[in-house]
Design brief:
CATH topology of the largest domain: Quinone Oxidoreductase, Chain A, domain 1
Number of domains: 2
Number of strands: 16
Number of helices: 13
Organism: Nesterenkonia salmonea
Protein name: Zinc-binding dehydrogenase
Distance between the termini: 16 Å
InterPro entries: ADH-like_C (IPR013149), ADH-like_N (IPR013154), GroES-like_sf (IPR011032), NAD(P)-bd_dom_sf (IPR036291)
GO molecular function: metal ion binding
Helix content: 25-40%
Keywords: Metal-binding, Zinc
Strand content: 15-25%
């Protein structure tokens, strides 16, 4: 089969690799019909190289049809399914708490990490990912989300990651209708976090430096601002001088915008050129994120408000302004999205004829899998109005 593989920092290739096979009774194999490139994939492309091995199959936002099912799986051949990005058992203590990202059965204990993730480095189990023509799905007795046949893939695909991540970001903001929220970053997660918050009756402000991203959000009733100090002031003025009730940081570890972030960017890139055995301890113990978005959120949110982090952070030594956090009495919530905790609330919305979350207005590029290297570069550089790329592994051209 063809698969998208990591070959080094900023180096992605499409290779022919062995087809996956059933390894356990609760496995399934799916033929992947759509698979998306996530902002988190760019962290592998740019930052997390010390935890990658050339040839690793990447990607964690797939859907398709079952072609083979183990006897203890919960699917049958030809079932149409979406695959959550995390691998969870559904039976352990944490799964019962709705914390599937902490699944005790699949925790990567040798790395001190939570549940295994598809296509996401040694940190999360080195499980082959979903940017491929076929995918082995462990724990197919629990993980796959069965969907109907009538609607196109893009109505369902983002149940794998983007929609639950955005939904959790809004849920963790702990707000009620009539409250206000600011979203930092209008990439895929920020787009849907803003739309979900608007759908739930919040007044939504959003900041992003890219005009096309602001224009997309504005089509869905979001009040948009560019990435400048005056934007922070404008949002504060619009909220009675206090700041919004909550801020959602949908940017994460690769933010741009201040001198600390510039230095962290240099450090992140420098680590890529160390041998893995040297680079891993540096990232494990001394990794520093680019924190411009986080600092903006702390500055902008009102006193007593909530800061909800959905952008991925990976540093162990990132400096935090504890005085400001404590003095402003800010509640901070965060974490990988627990996909199956939220799916039942989201599924009726993606199937609704009126498309209340605007899923039909989200994908900007559809490309065959052979064009994945160009797609990664375009997404990383934000060229050609690129907001969300969907790869179609069964498409030939």
């Amino acid at each position: 089969m063809k698969a998208v593989t990591w070959q080094g920092p900023r180096k992605i290739s499409v290779d022919t690799v062995p087809d996956p096979v059933i390894q356990r009774p609760n496995d399934a194999i799916i033929e992947v019909t759509s698979t998306a490139i996530c902002g988190s994939d760019l962290h592998l492309y740019e930052v997390l190289g010390p935890f990658m091995t050339p040839g690793d199959i990447v990607g964690h936002e797939p859907m398709g049809r079952v072609v083979e099912a183990g006897p203890e799986s919960n699917v049958r051949p030809d079932d149409r399914v979406v695959i959550p990005f995390q691998i969870a058992c559904g039976n352990c203590y944490f799964c019962a708490q709705g914390l599937q990202t902490q699944c005790e059965t699949t925790q990567v204990t040798d790395q001190g990490s939570g549940a295994q993730l598809f296509g996401y480095s040694e940190l999360y189990g080195s499980v082959p990912g979903g940017q491929a023509q076929y995918l082995r799905v462990p724990h197919a007795d629990y993980g796959p989300i069965k969907v109907r046949d009538e609607l196109p893939d893009h109505r369902y695909l983002f149940l794998s990651d983007v929609l639950p991540t955005a939904w959790q970001a809004v849920a963790y903001a702990q707000r009620s209708p009539g409250d206000s929220v600011a979203v930092l970053g209008l990439g895929p997660i920020g787009q849907f976090a803003a739309r979900i918050a608007k759908h739930q009756g919040l007044t939504v402000y959003a900041i992003d430096p890219v005009a096309e991203r602001r224009e997309m959000a504005a089509r869905h009733g979001v009040l948009v601002y560019d990435n400048s100090a005056s934007s922070v002031d404008a949002i504060r003025d619009a909220t009675g001088g206090r700041g919004p009730d909550a801020v959602i940081d949908a940017v994460g570890m690769e933010a741009h915008g201040d001198s600390q972030s510039a230095l962290a960017k240099l450090a992140q890139r420098s680590v890529q050129f160390l041998p893995d055995k040297l680079g891993q301890p540096v990232m494990d113990k001394a990794g520093v994120d680019r924190l411009a978005a986080l600092y903006t959120g702390i500055e902008l949110v009102r006193r007593g408000g909530t800061l909800s982090l959905s952008g991925v952070y990976g540093g162990q030594a990132s400096p935090l302004p504890m005085l400001s956090l404590f003095d402003k009495q800010i509640q901070v919530t965060m974490g990988q999205a627990n996909v199956k905790r939220w799916v039942n609330e989201i599924l009726p919305l993606v199937e609704a004829p009126d498309d209340p979350l605007g899923v039909d207005d989200f994908v900007t590029h559809r490309m065959p899998i052979d064009q994945a290297p160009a797609a990664y570069e375009m997404f990383q550089k934000k060229d050609d109005g690129c907001i969300k790329v969907v790869l179609e592994p069964q498409r030939t051209h």
